[in-house]
């Protein structure tokens, strides 16, 4: 019985030590409070002996910080390719250098719970937000986009990652006594 207990305790201690070492190299999501929605980007991939060495490019995105949307253009050079945000999904981010460099937390494809970082050199567009209308990307005042966010309860910083559709407008019923004419 004593050997079993010590075996379990030793196994748990080894697991805790291994886990803390493994987690030490990981990225803590709580350190990335901002959200970035990438609308478009272009990329140039560089390979070495058939393996992706790095990707660089530029694009357009919205930053969500303190409940406010703000458009920005960016350039990047990362160890992996960026992907446009699908639907309304966003990347976790934090300022590396306020107003100049955002650090994104990127999931590693094929490796659950693994992440890499990528720095975006940004050119912020004060009081503006990007929005896609009928497939075309346009700029609009950030205040208009914020109103849309409030109306649709969209707030990616606080886990509201999908806008709630507004119910269709129903015309009021015809006034009593009104007659329909053929």
Folded structure, characterized:
There is one protein chain. By secondary structure, this protein is an alpha+beta fold. The protein has one domain. Helix content is 18%, strand content 43%. The protein has 2 helices and 8 strands, in the order αββββββββα. A 6-stranded antiparallel barrel has the order 1-2-3-6-5-4. Strands 7-8 form a two-stranded antiparallel ribbon. The radius of gyration is 24 Å and the shape is elongated. It starts with a helix and ends in a 31-residue tail after the last helix. The N terminus is likely disordered.
Whole-number average pLDDT?
82
Order of helices and strands: HEEEEEEEEH
Count of β-strands: 8
Multimerization state: single chain
**How does the helix and strand content classify structurally?**
alpha+beta
Q: What is the first-to-last residue Cα distance?
A: 92 Å
Beta fraction: 35-45%
Which descriptors would you attach to this protein?
182 residues; two-stranded antiparallel ribbon; 2 helices; 8 strands; elongated; disordered N terminus
Summarize the structure.
The protein is an alpha+beta fold and 182 residues long. It has one domain.
Task: Describe how the helices and strands are arranged.
Elements lengths: L1 H23 L9 E15 L2 E15 L2 E11 L12 E7 L3 E7 L7 E11 L2 E6 L2 E6 H10 L31
Antiparallel strand pairs: 1-2, 1-4, 2-3, 3-6, 4-5, 5-6, 7-8
